[in-house]
């Protein structure tokens, strides 16, 4: 008596699937029309965190949504999975393109390599990638942000407002993208306050992206810093930032938000500890892309959104930095004209 | 026991499991506010296009390698959660060394594969040694070692050390391996099939041969059936556990190669995480049999690929995760039921034979 170990269950499952599929009719592909740039259906493909993060993805969506409303076209959203490879992402973009979506936005640098492949396969569709400038094709719009410029300004605010000469930076995941925030912030702090020290911490290391959505971890890190004498923390930490703001409120210190104007997102008892927020207006980029594609003014290649064109900035809600705004705006003008060059790497 | 009733029993388990999974899927879809029939039909229509099927096979290759790695450990009840760390460290090392040398193609490929095998082997052997020498639970030690691997890679993969960032990019990668270290895709009318599929097939055959036709395989199977009996028979349990763990790690080391040799040609932040649990699930689905694991990996990849349509239809793709979990659970439960029924039948059969035999 020996047990047989043939994989019958799987054979049966596969068979059932095949039989069921034969009963269905194949989905027909709707190729995008040739001719001048026009947009009929918009799709936005997120990286793993997806919409509802209260920050970066939501803002990117806002721009696409605004464009979709103005053009009165459909807007579709899809999200990546944790163990996705380049092939999966390429297949996701391909599926969108074959389903008739002709303005397709990939949010995050992980879509770079897949988009390079898929954009060539669908020359009549329009593609945009957020946070990457390496995709080079006649129908791809690369959206980059000068996060270091916006971070510089909130760094200046922190440098002017600190009373302990110790400020903190909490990044979600140690990625080059977030190191741009760190570099700009530290440069801003020391620009106005050479004596101030900047403590830096990242919540996780890639490919562990938990740092983007782990408020308790953010809170622990922040409490540690406040204990250490830090009185202002810049939380470039996605969803984990909520924990940092909580820690600031509990210990009566300041925190600085990121991407959105977080003063408007947090409850009253917490928002009074949010000094300002570094705004990353990804909606400007996604909206610009769709409208350019729809209005026959599409230019492929890198589009950088910085202080000069409203891509980044700082929030003034709460009025906590009203006394230094003049200084911030003067420095912002210096950055725009190139008098100050903000570093992009720490 | 090989009569029609035995065969019917054998088919009953998978049939019941599939049916249960489909019913649950339909119920979940209904709850999510979608028409189950239309949705499942759309997903299948998309999943069975030739282009999608090729993509499914490509996706299934790393799942298969992870599944075989997990299956090796399962024979000795070792849960190798460390597949994730072993594969990433191995792929990283293979990418760095592969990009650093310039040698003719066969040597280059052999070198890359060997590095991947050795690094995976070595990293898993740490957990194996801790288990054998100190009795440290493999689940715990491999989870810890995953975190250590993540840290080591994060430290090394920075522009000051072994990483590089292309201008305008936000991805850190190793240097690109030269073309002598690439494995070309196998062209099919529906798109390129990853060339590593051949390695996967050879590995499956090798796994079967070692397990069923060698002394080592016999020892592993004996140990898996009854540790006490095997020890009494003179099999050294610690040595075998260490060997099995290291072998599982070596195979885990190969998991990243389809992506490294067949697609990206460099290691970067975009290498996926979370393959350990996929490997364990796929091995359970395939009941540790090479063919079963292959089908398990295919079904897993098929479900994930078809799920892309759900997103388009406005349904949360988590439905597919539920479906995958239900399938694994129902298969385990169904096989356990069948095993009990058969055990009872065997006892009855033996009893009857003994009663009926002349004294």
What is this structure, in a nutshell?
The complex is a heterodimer of chains A (346) and B (359). Chain A has helices spanning 8-23, 56-71, 86-98, 112-121, 147-161, 176-192, 215-227, 241-251, 268-271, 282-294, 325-337; strands spanning 41-46, 74-79, 103-107, 126-130, 140-145, 166-173, 197-204, 232-236, 254-259, 274-280, 301-305, 312-314. Chain A has 346 residues and is α/β, with parallel strands linked by helices.
What is the topological layout?
The complex is a heterodimer of chains A (346) and B (359).
Chain A: H1 8-23, E1 41-46, H2 56-71, E2 74-79, H3 86-98, E3 103-107, H4 112-121, E4 126-130, E5 140-145, H5 147-161, E6 166-173, H6 176-192, E7 197-204, H7 215-227, E8 232-236, H8 241-251, E9 254-259, H9 268-271, E10 274-280, H10 282-294, E11 301-305, E12 312-314, H11 325-337
Parallel strand pairs in A: 1-2, 1-3, 3-4, 4-5, 5-11, 6-7, 6-8, 8-9, 9-10
Antiparallel strand pairs in A: 10-12
Helix pairs in contact in A: 2-10, 3-4, 5-6, 5-11, 7-8
Chain B: H1 4-31, H2 36-47, H3 50-74, H4 83-100, H5 105-134, H6 138-156, E1 164-165, E2 172-173, E3 186-188, E4 191-193, H7 197-213, H8 215-225, H9 227-232, H10 237-253, H11 257-264, H12 275-285, H13 290-312, H14 318-356
Antiparallel strand pairs in B: 1-2, 3-4
Description:
The complex is a heterodimer of chains A (346) and B (359). Residues 1-6 and 13-36 of chain A have low confidence and may be disordered. In chain A, helix 9 (268-271) links the parallel strand 9 (254-259) and strand 10 (274-280). Chain A folds into 2 domains: 41-145 and 283-305, Response regulator (Rossmann fold), CATH 3.40.50; 147-279 and 316-337, 3-Layer(aba) Sandwich (Rossmann fold). In chain A, helix 5 packs parallel to helix 6 (176-192) and helix 5 (147-161) runs antiparallel to helix 11 (325-337). Chain A is globular. Chain A is 41% helix and 20% strand. The longest helix of chain A has 17 residues, at 176-192. In chain A, the strands form 2 sheets. Chain A has a 6-stranded parallel β-sheet with strand order 2-1-3-4-5-11, sandwiched between helices. Chain A is α/β, with parallel strands linked by helices and 346 residues long. Chain A has 11 helices and 12 strands. In chain B, the strands form 2 sheets. A two-stranded antiparallel ribbon of chain B has the order 1-2. Chain B has a two-stranded antiparallel sheet with strand order 3-4. Chain B is mainly alpha-helical and 359 residues long. Chain B has a single domain, classed as ABC transporter involved in vitamin B12 uptake, BtuC (Orthogonal Bundle), CATH 1.10.3470. The mean pLDDT of chain B is 88. Chain B is built from 14 helices and 4 strands. In chain B, helix 1 (4-31) crosses helix 2, helix 4 packs antiparallel against helix 5 (105-134) and helix 5 (105-134) packs antiparallel against helix 10 (237-253). Chain B has helices spanning 4-31, 36-47, 50-74, 83-100, 105-134, 138-156, 197-213, 215-225, 227-232, 237-253, 257-264, 275-285, 290-312, 318-356, and strands at 164-165, 172-173, 186-188, 191-193. Chains A and B meet through helix 1, strand 2 and helix 3 of A and helix 1, helix 2, helix 3, helix 6 and helix 11 of B.
């Amino acid at each position: 008596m020996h047990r047989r170990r043939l994989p019958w269950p799987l054979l049966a499952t596969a068979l059932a699937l095949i039989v069921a599929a034969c009963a269905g009719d194949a989905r027909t592909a709707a190729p995008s029309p040739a001719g001048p740039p026009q947009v009929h259906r918009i799709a936005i493909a997120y990286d793993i965190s997806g919409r509802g993060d209260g920050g970066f993805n939501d803002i990117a969506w806002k721009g696409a949504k605004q464009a979709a409303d103005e053009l009165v076209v459909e807007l579709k959203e899809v999200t990546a999975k944790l163990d996705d490879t380049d092939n999966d992402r390429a297949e996701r973009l391909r599926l969108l393109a074959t389903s008739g979506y002709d303005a397709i936005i990939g949010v995050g640098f992980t879509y770079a390599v897949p988009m390079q492949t898929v954009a060539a396969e669908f020359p009549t569709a329009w593609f945009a990638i957020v946070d990457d400038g390496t995709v080079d094709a006649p129908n791809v719009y690369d959206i980059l942000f000068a996060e270091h410029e916006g971070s510089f300004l909130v760094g200046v605010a922190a440098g002017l407002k600190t009373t302990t000469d110790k400020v903190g930076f909490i990044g979600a995941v140690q990625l080059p993208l977030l190191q741009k925030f760190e570099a700009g912030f530290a440069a801003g702090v020391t620009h106005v306050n050479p004596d101030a020290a900047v403590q830096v911490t990242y919540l996780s290391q890639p490919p562990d992206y938990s740092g983007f959505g782990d408020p308790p971890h953010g809170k622990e890190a922040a409490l540690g810093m406040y204990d250490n004498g830090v009185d202002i923390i810049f939380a470039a930490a996605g969803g984990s930032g909520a924990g940092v703001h909580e820690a600031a409120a509990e210990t009566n210190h300041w925190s600085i938000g990121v991407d959105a104007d977080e003063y408007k997102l947090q409850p009253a008892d917490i928002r009074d500890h949010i000094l300002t927020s570094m705004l990353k207006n990804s909606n400007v980029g996604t909206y610009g892309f769709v409208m350019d594609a729809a209005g026959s003014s599409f230019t492929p290649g890198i589009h950088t959104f910085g202080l000069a064109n409203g891509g980044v900035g700082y929030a003034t809600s709460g009025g906590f930095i009203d006394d230094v705004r003049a200084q911030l705006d003067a420095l912002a003008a210096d950055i725009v004209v190139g008098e100050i060059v903000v570093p992009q790497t720490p | 026991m090989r009569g029609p009733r035995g065969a019917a029993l054998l088919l009953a388990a998978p049939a019941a499991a599939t049916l249960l999974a489909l019913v649950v899927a339909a119920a979940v879809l209904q709850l999510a506010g979608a028409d189950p029939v239309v949705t499942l039909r759309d997903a299948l229509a998309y999943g069975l296009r030739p282009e999608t099927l090729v993509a499914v096979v490509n996706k299934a290759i790393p799942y298969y390698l992870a599944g075989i790695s997990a299956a090796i450990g399962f024979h000795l009840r070792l849960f190798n959660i460390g597949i994730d760390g072993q594969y990433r460290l191995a792929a990283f090392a293979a990418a760095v060394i592969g990009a650093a040398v310039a040698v003719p193609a066969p040597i280059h490929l052999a070198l890359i594969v060997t590095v991947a095998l050795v690094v995976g082997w070595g990293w898993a052997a740490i957990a194996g040694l801790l288990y054998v020498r100190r009795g440290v639970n493999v689940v715990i030690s491999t989870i810890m070692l995953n975190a250590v691997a993540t840290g080591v890679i994060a430290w090394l993969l920075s522009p000051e050390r072994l990483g590089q960032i292309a201008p305008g990019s936000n991805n850190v990668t190793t240097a690109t391996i030269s073309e002598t270290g690439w494995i070309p895709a196998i062209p099919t009318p529906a798109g390129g099939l990853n060339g590593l599929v051949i390695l996967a097939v050879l590995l499956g055959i090798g796994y079967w041969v070692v397990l069923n036709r060698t002394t080592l395989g016999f020892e592993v199977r004996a140990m898996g059936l009854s540790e006490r009996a095997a020890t009494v028979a003179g099999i050294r349990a610690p040595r075998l556990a260490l060997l099995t763990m290291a072998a599982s790690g070596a195979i885990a080391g190969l998991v990243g190669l389809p992506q490294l040799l067949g697609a990206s040609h460099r290691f970067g932040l975009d290498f996926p995480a979370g393959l350990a649990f996929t490997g364990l699930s796929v091995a359970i689905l395939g009941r540790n049999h090479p063919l079963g694991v292959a089908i398990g990996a295919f079904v897993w990849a098929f479900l994930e690929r078809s799920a892309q349509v759900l997103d388009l239809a406005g349904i949360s793709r988590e439905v597919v995760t539920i479906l995958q979990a239900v399938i694994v659970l129902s298969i385990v439960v169904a096989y356990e039921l069948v095993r009990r029924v058969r055990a009872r039948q065997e006892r009855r059969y033996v009893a009857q034979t003994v009663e009926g035999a002349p004294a």
